[in-house]
Amino acid sequence: MNAATPRLFRPGDGAVPPALSGREAQQDVLSRCLADLVAGSSPPHNVVLVGPRGNGKTALLNWFKGACADTPVDVVALTPHRIPSHEALVDALAPRSAIAKWLPRKVGVAALGSVEWQPNGAAGKDLTRTLIARSRKRPLAVLLDEAHTLALDVGGTLLNASQQVRADAPFLLVLAGTPGLPDHLSAMDATFWSRLGEGLLPVGRLDDTAAREALAQPLSAHRVGIDRDALDAVVEHSQRYPYFIQLWGEALWKRHAATNGTPITVDRVSSAEPAVLASVANYYESRYRELRAEGLLDAAVAVAPLFQAGMDATAAEQELENALAAAGIKDAAARFATLAQLGRLGYVWCPPGQVPPVAWSAGIPSLTTYILEHGPAPH
Ligand SMILES: Nc1ncnc2c1ncn2[C@@H]1O[C@H](COP(=O)(O)OP(=O)(O)OP(=O)(O)O)[C@@H](O)[C@H]1O
Ligand SMILES: [Mg+2]
Q1: Domains, the chain, ordered by start
Q2: Measured from the CB, is residue 249 less than 6 Å from ligand 1?
Q3: Average pLDDT over residues 66-87
Q4: Which member of 14, 173, 320, 331 has the lowest number of beta carbons within 10 Å of its beta carbon?
Q5: The pTM is what?
């Protein structure tokens, strides 16, 4: 990209992409939560965004943060590395230095108890009570990205506090994480899921319309057209995977000046392809190493053929289990654990909250092809 070409597409950085397409359902739920907070009440549920890596969870959190910016809602955006301990959690959400502005010195409100407020005293440690006071002053949204890596004890405190705070003051907790998040949250609080209702939002690959829009709309906003054939080719190659769409967008955008105002053609797509292929190959290589490090390469190879029929291929859970059995995993519990691990890594994907019998799809179909071609030979 030369100095005159501003950055447009956003591969891999979690910033809100130039067109956040195909996320209307998630945005709708989050917008309703925001409206409740603005109106001074807690939304009917917390929100959990779950999806394999690179599908746009962080982008959605950032979009929501932006939506809150024009409202009286306070936002605290966190990642687990900022809150490794209970003390750090209290510090991030209810820092002692700010407590005075949320609490009157004499605290007589029922939910806070009739205690004499002492900024440096034991009450300062009481996260729930302080958060209630904070959220009563100003509605509060706590956003936690990468929540699947949150320490269990810290998470237990956070979930517990969030349940109590939201009952008394306008408060929302939004968690985002990879497909391991549901199990991780269950380990923190076994009843969390039963209260989540509409707040469980899967974030998977885009549908066809959204993938096209994600590419074409930012280009067209800059008066750069793209031929139908060229768009077909890019959407097919991207597998409708948001990260790859941004890679393609960036590669095309970098070359747009050379189109002299004519729409991007299939030839132009071909000239951008090597740059995209290099990034995609790096990405596959790292996913390959991750599977190998987890001892999952054989299993990944075994299930890969189920997803070779095209971008939308799905397989019944039983088919995956059969493939794993054929690869030598004789024990049913071990097969189940292997499938769950492949799911946690997003190699295969089944949105949470499905009623059995569930259908699995490939996290990224072209990755299963790569693994078939580069992984160990099937047994
Ligand atoms: N709706 C969308 N349309 C197009 N591109 C998107 C969309 N959502 C996200 N992206 C792009 O996809 C890429 C991945 O997004 P993001 O980093 O938010 O994913 P993630 O799910 O948080 O991944 P990870 O689990 O690795 O943190 C980014 O380049 C982002 O700009
Ligand atoms: Mg992310």
Answers
A1: 24-202 (3.40.50.300), 208-290 (1.10.8), 295-374 (1.10.10)
A2: no
A3: 96
A4: 331
A5: 0.92
